[in-house]
């Protein structure tokens, strides 16, 4: 099956610093990548959708200047949490799809971000 | 707005019991439907999906789901659960944007 990796798996940072999370599709070309946030004991909340080579589309309520998404190639998307604060602490999960639209998404293992 | 409802927050079963997890969605157009599973400490994995055709979909590990369009439902079933089925189960609906249900935690007692 399709494999998606994320790096790092865990990161702890100080308040005010920026953190970059990478999402890679290892064995297929990901036309579209998605970034989710999962709160404890809650479902996944879609943050943004990115298509290779174009700007990401952010969900309502998600600050695009705070959560910078870059989808520079068909196998790599990055999420940068800028000027992180303790309330940004969460589990961030990416997924990738081989084509745009309502196709199957394959999920990465997630990144646990803790902001002190 | 498109939404997905999973009625059961936590289900506890004994091994060999039958399982049915409910999923309803509120969207009148064409949808693609998914069930994902998240085992403890692992990432989300696709159990099964429905795009079109036979509304009874069979997935991995003996799971199946039935799409009932008139009821806007896509319930997940398994005739006989095992201890290894203990996990969090998420229903998802995609009509351009993927929306997840809140999840159902299944605990199977040995």
Please mark out the parts of chain A with pLDDT under 50 across 5 or more consecutive residues, or reply none.
none
Strand percentage of chain A lies at over 45%
Strand content of chain B: over 45%
* Class of secondary structure makeup of chain A: mainly beta
What summary fits the major beta sheet of chain B? 6 strands, mixed
SSE arrangement of chain B, N to C: EEEEEEEEEEEE
Largest sheet of chain A: 7 strands, mixed
Rg measurement of chain B, Å: 13 Å
Structural classification of chain B: mainly beta
If you had to describe this structure to a student in words, what would you say it looks like?
- The complex is a heterodimer of chains A (116) and B (110).
- With 116 residues, chain A is an all-beta fold.
- Helices cover 0% and strands 52% of the residues of chain A.
- Chain A has no helices and 11 strands.
- In chain A, strands 2, 4, 5, 6, 9, 10 and 11 form a 7-stranded mixed sheet that branches. A 4-stranded antiparallel sheet of chain A has the order 1-3-8-7, with no helix packed on it.
- In chain A, a hairpin with a 2-residue loop joins strand 7 and strand 8.
- Chain B is mostly beta strands.
- Chain B is built from no helices and 12 strands.
- In chain B, a hairpin with a 6-residue loop joins strand 5 (32-38) and strand 6.
- Chain B is globular.
- The chains are: A mainly beta (116), B mainly beta (110).
């Amino acid at each position: 099956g399709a494999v998606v990796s994320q790096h790092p798996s865990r990161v702890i940072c100080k308040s005010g610093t920026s953190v970059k999370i990478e999402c890679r599709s290892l064995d297929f070309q990901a036309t579209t990548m998605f970034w989710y946030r999962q709160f404890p004991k809650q479902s996944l909340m879609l943050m943004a959708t990115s298509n290779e080579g174009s700007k990401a589309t952010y969900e309502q309520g998600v600050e695009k200047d705070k959560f910078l998404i870059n989808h520079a190639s068909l196998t790599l998307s990055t999420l940068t949490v800028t000027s992180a604060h303790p309330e940004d602490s969460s589990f961030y999960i990416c997924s990738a799809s081989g084509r745009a639209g309502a196709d199957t998404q394959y999920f990465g293992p997630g990144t646990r971000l803790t902001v002190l | 707005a498109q939404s997905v409802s999973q009625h059961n927050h936590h289900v506890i079963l004994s091994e060999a019991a039958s399982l049915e997890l409910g999923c309803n969605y509120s969207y009148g157009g064409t949808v693609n439907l998914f069930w994902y599973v998240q085992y403890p400490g692992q990432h989300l994995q696709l159990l099964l999906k429905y795009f079109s055709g036979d509304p009874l979909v069979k997935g991995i590990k003996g799971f199946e789901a039935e799409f009932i369009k008139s009821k806007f439902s896509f319930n997940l079933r398994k005739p006989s659960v095992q201890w290894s089925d203990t996990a969090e189960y998420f229903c998802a609906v995609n009509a351009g944007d993927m929306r997840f249900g809140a999840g159902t935690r299944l605990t199977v007692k040995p």
